[in-house]
């Protein structure tokens, strides 16, 4: 009867407080999870009536039993070489004199769960001599906790779980990972290393904090926190990873004008000017300028059909969103036109110099490729010239007395 009463009192004190629990109580977690092949920390404290504290000395020991059969698996009094007699290897890290029964078990078995029972034991002769009617209370001071061991652990967590900040904001990310084994805490690593980190690995969960200032370069960047768990008895390490995608709000950047198609713009052809920019949120307004005057078109693409000399000039664009705007560098649009050279005229001029040979013909077509604009008349040569006034010329050399003829 006394044993049953104490068992119920101990169980009751795990979830309640009061004068009753200030006398006889054991404080344990309801469940303890651990990684197989690693160690496990069981935090444990107890209370007892003041008149019993005189028996809390170095002769007391903590006993752990397992299963409904109450098989003894750990005796804190077995140390050194005799410690190998314990079925479950470990050590008592708390001091019973301080009512601390915290225990570490090593190399936990795989895929296992069971009820474990704690028992505080004091030499019976001293107790029987002074308080014989209370002997069984202290000897059977017991409560159970459910242990659960697994071959895997949950991924670490990153807080905040979603991040959307403006450029220039100071950001703090915290990575947390379960840490059941204080002598083998997880190794937490951030990638990429965006800033300074601070770690607290002795706590459960273990944490790593990274601090940085948000930049537009961080937008849509994936940041990962990895937790590496070393295990005992030569078992392989385990690695878990959590990824967070950053969202950084910023005004337009890298605003540029692109000409499509590239290359010379021929008179009468079509050309598109495209304004490109990076921003978050996206650009909501584009403004085009020609020779510093606002163009009527406001979209990201300025289309010029049937290009002629009136379209020549310096073009640039401005991209704008809710956070600001940026103006591109100017590009020069130079419309090229077609020129014709009559082959018959050249042959007639050549006939006047029967004795002269044509040394070379140097035609400056503004370094442009010829383009057919229809069927040529007989004897015509087609080329290109710039509207900027660069003339094309045909030069011919002939010997003369003391000089060249052109």
Automatic annotation (TrEMBL):
Chain segments carrying region Disordered: 383-406
Organism: Neolamprologus brichardi
SMART domains the UniProt entry points to: IG, IGc2
UniProt-listed PROSITE patterns: IG_LIKE
Transmembrane segments: none
Record's signal peptide: 1-21
Family matches, as SUPFAM superfamilies: Immunoglobulin
Swiss-Prot/TrEMBL keywords: Signal
Lineage, uppermost ranks: Eukaryota, Metazoa, Chordata, Craniata, Vertebrata
Domain Ig-like residue range list: 154-245, 252-332
InterPro entries to which the protein is assigned, alphabetical: Ig-like_dom, Ig-like_dom_sf, Ig-like_fold, Ig_sub, Ig_sub2
Name of the protein in question: Ig-like domain-containing protein
PANTHER family listed in its UniProt record: B-CELL RECEPTOR CD22-LIKE-RELATED, SI:CH211-171H4.5-RELATED
């Amino acid at each position: 009867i006394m044993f049953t009463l104490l068992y119920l009192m101990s169980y009751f004190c795990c979830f309640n407080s009061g004068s009753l629990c200030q006398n006889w109580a054991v404080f344990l977690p309801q469940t303890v999870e651990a990684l197989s092949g690693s160690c496990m920390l069981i935090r444990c404290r107890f209370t007892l009536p003041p008149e019993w504290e005189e028996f809390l000395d170095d002769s007391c020991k903590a006993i752990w039993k397992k299963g409904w059969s109450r098989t003894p698996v750990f005796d804190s009094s077995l140390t050194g070489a005799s410690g190998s007699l314990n079925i479950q290897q470990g050590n008592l890290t708390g001091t019973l004199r301080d009512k601390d029964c915290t225990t570490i078990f090593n190399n936990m078995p795989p895929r296992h769960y069971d009820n474990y029972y704690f028992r505080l034991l004091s030499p019976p002769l001293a107790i029987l001599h002074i308080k014989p009617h209370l002997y069984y209370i202290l000897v059977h001071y017991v409560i159970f906790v459910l242990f659960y061991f697994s071959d895997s652990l949950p991924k670490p967590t990153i807080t905040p779980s979603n991040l959307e900040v403006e450029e220039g904001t100071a950001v703090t990310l915290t990575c947390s990972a379960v840490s059941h084994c204080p002598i083998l805490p997880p190794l937490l690593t951030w990638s990429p290393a965006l800033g300074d980190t601070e770690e607290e690995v002795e706590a459960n969960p273990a944490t790593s904090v990274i601090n940085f200032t948000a930049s537009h370069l961080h937008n849509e960047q994936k940041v990962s926190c990895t937790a590496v768990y070393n295990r005992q008895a030569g078992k392989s390490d385990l690695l878990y990873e959590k990824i967070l995608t950053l969202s950084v709000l910023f005004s337009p950047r890298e605003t540029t004008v692109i000409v499509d198609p590239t290359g010379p713009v021929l008179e009468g052809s079509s050309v598109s000017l495209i304004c490109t920019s990076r921003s978050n949120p996206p650009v909501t307004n584009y403004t085009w300028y020609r020779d510093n005057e606002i163009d009527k078109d406001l979209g990201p693409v300025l289309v010029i059909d049937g290009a002629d000399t009136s379209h020549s000039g310096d073009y640039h664009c401005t991209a704008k969103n809710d956070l600001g705007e940026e103006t591109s560098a100017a590009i020069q649009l130079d419309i090229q036109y077609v020129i014709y050279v009559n082959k018959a005229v050249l042959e007639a001029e050549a006939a006047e110099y029967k004795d002269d040979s044509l040394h070379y013909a140097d035609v400056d077509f503004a370094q442009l490729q010829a383009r057919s604009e229809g069927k040529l008349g007989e004897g015509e040569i087609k080329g290109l010239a710039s509207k900027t006034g660069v003339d094309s010329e045909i030069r011919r050399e002939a010997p003369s007395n003391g000089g060249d003829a052109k």
